[in-house]
Structures are given as C-alpha cells and as structure tokens.
Give the backbone structure.
Amino acid sequence: MNLIAQLPVLPIIIPIVAAPITLLLPKGRVPHLWACLFSWLTFAACIALFAEVSSTGPISYHLGDWAPPIGIEYYIDLANALVLLLVSGIAAVVFPYAYRSVQLEVDERQTPLFYGALLICMTGLLGVTITGDAFNVFVFLEISSLSGYALIAMGARRDRRALTAAFNYLVMGTIGATFFVIGLGLLYQATGTLNMADLADRLIGQDNRMVEAGFAFILVGMGLKLAMFPMHLWLPNAYTYAPSAVTAFMAATATKVAVYVIIRFIFSVFNFDFAFIGAAFTYVLLPLGLAGMFVASFVALFQEDVKRMLAYSSVAQIGYMLLGLSFATVEGLTATLVHIFNHALMKGALFMAVGCVVLRAGSHSIYAFAGLSKRMPVTTWAFLISGLSLIGVPLTVGFISKWYLLQAAFEAGHWYAGFLIVASSLIALAYVGRVAEVMLLREPAEDGKYAMPKEEAPLSMLIPMWVLVAANIYFGVRTDLTGGIAQRAAETLMSMAGGAP
Amino acid sequence: MDDWLTFILERYNYWIVIMLMMTGLYIVFARGNLVKKIVGLNIFQTSVFIYYITIGKIVDGTAPIYMGGELEAASHHGGKEAGGAGHGAEAAAHDAAAAGEAVHAKIDNSALDHGQELKDALKHAPAPEEGGSLHELPDAGDKIANAMGDHLGKTPPADASGFDVGSAAGGAHDAAGNAAGGVGDGAADALHGAMDAVVYTNPLPHVLILTAIVVGVATTAVGLALAVRIREAYGTIEEDELEAADEIAEFGHAAGERAQAEAGAGA
C-alpha cells in the first residue's frame, strides 16, 4: 500500500482527521497554525491529484476496497479535479488570511472551534466534489452546510443579525438538502442503485414521470443551495454578517460546488436522451440565469453596504454560470467551468479586501471606504484590480469568462443573450465604479463613526489577498491554462451526456 | 371505480408521506416562532425518512440479518409439515441457482389450494421483467422465484417491482429465501411462521435513513442552538419582533412606526 494509490482519499482524510484535534488545542495562535498546515497539505494533495488526472485520465478509487456499485466510489475526472483544486486552493490562502481578521471578529475562546469548523466545511465541499456516489453527495453537502451555519453565526460578535441570517440559511439549506434527498429516493426507486455511473447506466430509457420528478427535486434542492435566482434570499444576509474570512471562503467555494453538483447530475447521471433535460435548459436555467444576472446586479447597485453589494453580485455571477450551462454545448459548459474558477478568484480577493477594511475601519459600509486610497492604498488597489476583473476588463480573468460566455452565446444562436451579458456587465461597472469613486476621490472622514487611522492591513492579510489578485491577472493572461483544461473537461462531460440535446 | 380506489389505497404510504411533508413545509413558512420552524423542519424531514423506509419494506419481510442455520432448520421443519411444498422450499434454500426450478417442482407436487395461483404468478413473472425493474436479478430462474415470492407475499403490485430490485441485490440466496417465504405464506400455515423469518426487507434505504437521521438531529441541534443565541441577543424568538428590532437598530424606528409617522405628517 503506497501513498500514491491512496491519493484520491487524502483530500478528505487529512482535514477531517485534523479538524477534531483542532478543538483540543489551546485558544489563540496554535489552532490557526495547525489549520493552516493542514489546509496546505490538502492543497498539495489536490495538486498531486490534479496532475495525476490530467496526465493519466479519470481515477476511480474504491473506499475500503469495496467495488462499486456496492461500495462507495470516488471518481475524479478533469471537471472535479479542477473544482477540487479551486476549493483547496482558496482554503490555502484564506486560512493564513483568517488569523488577524478572526482575532477581531470572533470571540477568542471560540478560535479552536472556528478553525475546526472551517476545516470541516472545507472537507465537506471537497467531499461533495470528489465522490462518485449520489447519497454521499448529500452527506458531504450537509457536513459543509452545518459547519457553514455555525461559521456564519460566529459573526454575531460584531453584528447580532448574523444569528438570524444563519438561522434563515439553515432553514433554506435544510429544505434544499431534503429536496435533494427526495430526488435521490425517486431515482433509487427507479433504478435500485446510488452509484452515479451505475445510475447513468440504469436510467437509460427510463424517461418516465418518476425519474422526471427525481430530476426536478434535485434541481430545486441544489438551486436552493447555490442561491439560484429567485431562491437566493438567504445569501445576501448570510454573506454580509458572516466573519470576513468565512465570507471570502464561502463566496468563493460553497456556491461553486453546488453548481458543480448540478453539472455532474445533468451530464453524468442524466443525459440528453431525456427530453426534460432539454426543457430544463430552455425553460428553467436559461431564463432564471438571465433574470438573476439582471435583477441581482440591479439590486447590488443600490446597496449601502459593500459586502452586501458583493453578495448580490455573487447571485448575478451564478446567473452567468447557469446561462453558460443552459446552452448545452461544449463552449457553454467550458464557459461555466472557467467562470466557476475565475469567479472564485475575483470574489475571494474582493471579500478579502473588504475584510482588510473592516479590520481598520470596523465597518463594511460604503462610507467606511471614503478616501481609502489615502489610508490603505495597497488594499484599495487589490479591490480595484479584482473589481475590474469582476466587470470583465481585458488582462483579467473576468474578461476570459465573459469572452467564453459570449462566444458560447453566439455559437448557440442566443445572440440576444450575448447582448444581455454585455449589458449586465455594464451594471457591474456601475456598482464597482461607485465604490471606486468613493475610494479614490472622496476625502477620508477625519472624525466620527467612519474615521480610521492611516494604516495598512497587516502583511498576513495582504499577502494572501495579493496572491489571489495576482492569480486574477496571471490566469487572465495565461488563458490556455484554465480555458484548455475546462474545454477538455467539458468535452468529457458532453460525451458522457451523449452530444447535443 | 374499484380499481381507482385500490390504486389509491395501495399507495397509502405515499399519502402519509405527502401529508406529513406538506404539514412540515407549511409550519416552516407560516409560523413566526423559530422553535416552531425547527419543529416543522423536523416533520418535513421525517416524512422523507418514512418515504425511504416504506420503499424498502417487503410485506412480511424481516430485518436483513443473515441466519444461515435457522434457514436450514426452517426448511427441514417446513419439509416435514407440508410435504411437497416443503421440499420445494428446502431445495430453494439450499441451492440458490436452482431456485426457479425448485418452485416449479413445488407447483407440480403441490396438491394444495394455491397451485393455480402459483402458476398464474409464473405467467406474471416476465411482465415486470420487461419493465426493466427486475433486470439485476442474477438469472432467469431467480427472477421467476422472486416474482412469485412477492406475488404470493401480497405485496402491492406497483411497488413490488421497486422492492424486488433491492431485495434481489442481496443475491441468489436471498431470492431463494424469498421464494420460500412466499410459498410458506401462500401454501401452508404450518410453513408460515418458520419461513417468514427469511424474507428480507431491503436494508439499504434503512441504512441511508440512519445517516439522514443523524444529519437531521445535527441540523435540529444547530437550529435550536441558534434559537437560544437569538433569544440571548434579541430577547425574543418571534420572527416579526426580530425584524422590528433590526429595523429599529438600523433606522431608529420600526417600519410600522415610520409609516404611521409619515401618515401623521401627511394629515
């Protein structure tokens, strides 16, 4: 038994073993260092796994050496290797960043709990991504969600509304997860299996009402989890009142993983032989994606709170992902996968910048950003560059996403969608521009509620933030990296689903 | 009309599930009290548990615990008491691959009342197979044996296919036991008690639901813990009062008061 053969299970085993031990550590610095160490180890395992998959093709790992479909299988192809890399990578930069921010925003006695919960949340997200067993998805999803509720509620030290936000998220998230389980139950009743590959085999030719209902339940359940418009109502409050590090981590990963689950189910479990898949694309994902892009962007425009503005922007960006998916072409799917990756980079960096401001100004209201360029120039520029990326300016990853998406829209014949993508980007320009104007041109408050010292955020926060900003530019120039991998992944998924609908 | 009524009554478990599910969801949405919301959420989740458990249930089935010794003893016992039927059942229990034929033998030998019914069951057997529901059974002999077992076990027809698939996953031995159980139920009372012990209920949904129950308990715990913290922070767990408190904290007065103030100013 060598370590390489056990590689696929390492991203789960490492953090889930480390998390309970975190709780036993003394409060203060130790749990943070411990959690950092294990998030990096996990990231290293994910890099190794990604390298393995991209050179030798999909890996199937049998847990406990029980052969599927009886045993649980971990199945890693390029699509989920990319998402694994993303989740563990974001974790690897958020964990070091968290220390100072958490010191301010979370009660010191709770630090072991905080880092333990953050590790478990990461485990859950990685587990959802890596597994090839449908019920396993539910279990890992709830592992990540439950720790997520607790993490969001920890923002209560600064603002008690974090508690109600976490409670609402808990109610919505549980309804979503339960819907997902109902869907799985219907599929199980139709096929007698829960292994994804096995499900796909046995669903062939079963285009009946039961399978249809199963798909609907799964789509709605995951739609709640990924904040698909109009099921996004839990998201703005949860992201606004959570501690900054939690927001940066969850905004960059949690919803992306849920989008991945929808992709996995549509392409690997169901396939285009089912008439209802095509209907779901045309009548559900396409209009809701477009509506989300506009309504949420428009709402973002009027927010006084920068964190809430970015949260609404996240809902809009999820609209882009669903839109790319709904074209049901290799190009559209490539655009979605690229945007999953890129949006995580830009939103992670933006929320980290907000966290730096919160550390110094004690607020994430737009008034706290007044004259920020004179107070915290490094943070300001990080915010501006990732903001430009959010709009989609060339040389940033945002441009690459929009480029793939536009190409896909025109090739799929949805030219109007192409115009709407550009129009919605203009709204993004307006809301990012509004913050930029406040940061660059306003005079900083000298006294009063929003006055702050002329002092940069500490290096432990600036370095992780700038790593993400640099990634925004690097992957914006080296487009072949993400684009090429996403395209190969999309081709594999598309061939699983059996070509165009 | 009768068909229609049986259609509804046979699926009574689904009606229970749907009613519980809607009750739970309604409570979650309609109640302002946070603890009541959690209770509603629990009822909603419980309905799903019941759904999973009922789709795994086989009429007269028992917990899926393998009892090799007892199975053999039961077969011998049945053999003494019920003659040909017992022989058939014994063969089925001993030799899984020959399960189908064992039941054939049973039909031929049996002078009991239900011989005709068994033949009918044999005729029926291929029908669910075409539907794809039995496709995972190891071989044709077992398919027939299993379908017969279920038929005689008086499982609701529409559900039988769903149940079979799971029970068959247990393997050929299972199928044989199933058939034996069916025979016992349909053919001879003496055989009944002894054979029942080896009709297995599909264990997988139960195991899944054990996991889901753990998740549900954890969710309830987190939800109630949040309610406690909300009570500490706000002094109330009523949703509208919470909203009013947030409103006052943000704007200095509640929305209702502001509307009143504006109306007053207008007058």
